[in-house]
């Protein structure tokens, strides 16, 4: 069974992360299934745009600590979202943590509802937001990025919109999304592809320059003693040894 479900309506394909047993954590299976679904969307001329959403109360809990994806596969997935010749719109009504923020940040447009919450929790398990920095740092307010990446604090959808993680936030996420999808349906496929290419050029330059080094950094940090303690503490629902 795929960890991603698919629906299609008037040129828009909705891909829903559908792995509630692990809160849509980025497992090897979910990364593989999402990459395959995106490839299908990219090759299908009937798809004008993609909505990336989720089942349950969590968009994505970040990396699956029990069945993590290969860092290179996750890097490739983020780049695939950025390079897809069709706009990708994130629809978020739940919690987003760590690597899930990279997935949202790779999308061209992102909207969030009142149930959404966000946190860069990497520092709390002994790693760093290495790979996700590539799609995120070109978009985020630098001062806000420093605060939230260094502290792991949680913030809401309104703050996510203020700092550039979300395009917009509202009490009714589908009401916010409706004019976005209407606009995409009115645009020509060629115009969307070329306009997206212009808009993502800086992000792709970051991938070209930094992907190998940041993927290696991610792998090294996840194999470190700090990460071992942090992940064990998380799974055991206790504070890691370094907490003062």
UniProtKB/TrEMBL annotation:
It is an enzyme of class 4 (lyase). It comes from the Bacteria. Keywords: Lyase. One of its GO terms (molecular function) is enoyl-CoA hydratase activity. Its EC number is 4.2.1.17. Belongs to the enoyl-CoA hydratase/isomerase family. This is Enoyl-CoA hydratase. It comes from Streptomyces griseoviridis.
């Amino acid at each position: 069974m795929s960890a991603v479900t698919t629906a299609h309506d008037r040129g828009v394909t909705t891909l829903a992360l559908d792995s509630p047993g692990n809160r849509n954590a980025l497992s090897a299976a979910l990364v593989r299934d999402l990459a395959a679904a995106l490839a299908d969307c990219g090759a299908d001329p009937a798809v004008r745009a993609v909505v990336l959403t989720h089942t349950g109360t969590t968009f994505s809990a970040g990396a699956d600590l029990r069945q993590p994806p290969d860092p290179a596969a996750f890097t490739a997935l983020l780049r695939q979202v950025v390079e897809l010749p069709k706009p990708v719109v994130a629809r978020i009504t739940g919690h987003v943590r760590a690597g899930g923020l990279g997935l949202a940040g790779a999308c061209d447009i992102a909207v969030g509802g009142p149930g959404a919450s966000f946190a860069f929790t990497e520092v709390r398990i002994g790693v760093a937001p290495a790979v996700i920095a590539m799609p995120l740092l070109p978009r985020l307010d630098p001062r806000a990025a420093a605060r939230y990446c260094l502290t792991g604090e949680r913030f809401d959808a309104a703050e996510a919109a203020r700092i550039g993680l979300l395009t917009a936030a509202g009490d009714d996420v589908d009401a916010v999304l409706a004019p976005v999808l209407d606009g995409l349906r009115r645009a020509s496929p060629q115009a969307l592809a070329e306009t997206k290419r212009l808009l993502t050029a800086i992000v792709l330059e970051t991938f070209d320059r930094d992907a190998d080094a940041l993927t290696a950094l991610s792998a090294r940090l996840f194999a470190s003693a700090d990460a071992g303690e942090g992940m064990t503490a998380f799974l055991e629902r206790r504070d890691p040894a370094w907490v003062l």
